[in-house]
Amino acid sequence: MWQTIGQPKAVSLFKHSLGTGNLAHAYLLVGPPHVGKTTLALDLAQALNCQGDEPPCGKCQSCRRIVEGKHADVIIIDVNSARDPKDTKPRTEISIKAIWNLQRSASLPPYEAKYKVFIVDGAERLSDEAANCLLKTLEEPPPKVIALLLTAEQLRLPPTVVSRCQMVELKPMPSAEIETILVEHHGVDSDRAKLLARLSRGCLGWALRAAVDESHLAQRTQRLSEMFSLVNASWEERFVYAAQQGNDRTSTEEIINLWLVCWRDVMLTKCGSEEAITNVDYGATLEDWAETLTLPETVDFINSLQESLSQISQNANTRLVLETLMLDMPRKEDKTAHAISPTPVAL
Ligand SMILES: [Zn+2]
User: Fold this and answer.
1) 76 CA to middle of ligand 1, Å?
2) For residue 100, how far is its CA from the centre of ligand 1 (angstroms)?
3) Which of 306, 259, 305 is nearest to 286 (CA)?
């Protein structure tokens, strides 16, 4: 049984291609984080190599080994592949070494399966060298080899790589469907399910993780309360915050994405579209902000947040990016102070 939920178009495309034996050599699975790209890639790898009657059965030895990450012919490559065990620094790119290993393995016939499946997770993180090297395999695909490139940011991939893949888009699910799945299949109480479904922004994988791991919501609460303080903070306090975040690209991206959603909520509240906001549990705070801040400054800061994400994706220094955001973030204190100060009397 296919484990991918909420992606009927993508699943039926693969079922049809499997049925007609008309598979491409390479697919690009595009969709936001936690929307189901990895689940779909593993489903396809199982369907190709299943030993049961109804592939993917999920029960045969091949299906089980694939999902456990132990199958010799289904290989997942990400930023941590082919790294020196002594190298403990966080990696930001998929190295050329990882692609050399892929090519060496692709040149050999499948060891225990019908097809070799290479899943490149976070394909936008391929280094230029690695992408060029992978392109050779995509241009002259060995028989019985299928490459699945997974990305949330298709525009960061070289067009030459994209043009060699068949694109399959995974769309966020309606929040009501996620809420139903959480309540009916995972026993989550309805208020919590409603909140998680809204916060997941259509990505079931995020909602499922947050339902079982309290730390997801706790981290969000902490990051949002830091942001709420920053809006009222002095310049000095803001720069101390930027310095404290260090140079962790992934966590900075997560923080900025969270802020972006929150500031969009402020904009929606200002425009009277409260029913569309994501952070429903912070409605009162968002209304307070929406009353104090102007639409142009809210929109300007949303643009700054988007620009900062694009700079981080181009390997900008994360502390500098955060410091610029600290300068760009509107200061609510200024507005409040101004609003309550007495109107000057003309002499
Ligand atoms: Zn099976």
Assistant:
1) 19
2) 30
3) 259
Q: According to CATH, what is the number of the domain 213-336?
A: 1.20.272.10
pLDDT classification of 157: cutoffs 50, 70, 90: very high
Measure 61 CA to ligand 1 centroid, in angstroms: 7
Sequence-ordered strand ranges (E) for the chain: 26-30, 74-77, 116-121, 145-151, 166-169
User: In a 3-state reduction of DSSP, which class is residue 121?
Assistant: strand
- Choose between 88 and 121: higher pLDDT: 121
Cα of 2 vs centre of ligand 1, distance in Å, is: 11
Centroid of ligand 1 to alpha carbon of 15 (angstroms): 15
Q: What is the pLDDT of residue 62?
A: 95
Cα 180 to middle of ligand 1, angstroms: 28
Residue 287: which residues within 8 A CB-CB, separation 6 or more?
269, 274
Q: What is the pLDDT of residues 209-238, one digit of tens each?
A: 999 999 999 999 999 999 999 999 999 999
DSSP 48-114: HH--SSSSS-S-SHHHHHHHTT--TTEEEE-TTTT--TT--SPP-SB-HHHHHHHHHHHTSPPSSSS
Answer whether residue 342 shows pLDDT above 60. Answer: no
Enumerate the domain spans of the chain: 8-169, 174-212, 213-336
The pTM of this model reads 0.85
Distance 10 CA to ligand 1 centre (A): 20
For residue 62, the CA-to-ligand 1 centroid distance in Å is 6
Cα of 55 to ligand 1 centre, how many Å? 6
CA of 111 to the centre of ligand 1 (A): 17
What's the fold here for domain 8-169? Rossmann fold (3.40.50)
Beta pairing, strands 145-151 & 166-169: unpaired
Task: Tell me the pairing of strands 74-77 and 26-30.
Answer: unpaired
Query: What H or E segment, with its residue span, contains residue 41?
Result: helix 37-49
Distance 50 CA to ligand 1 centre (A): 4
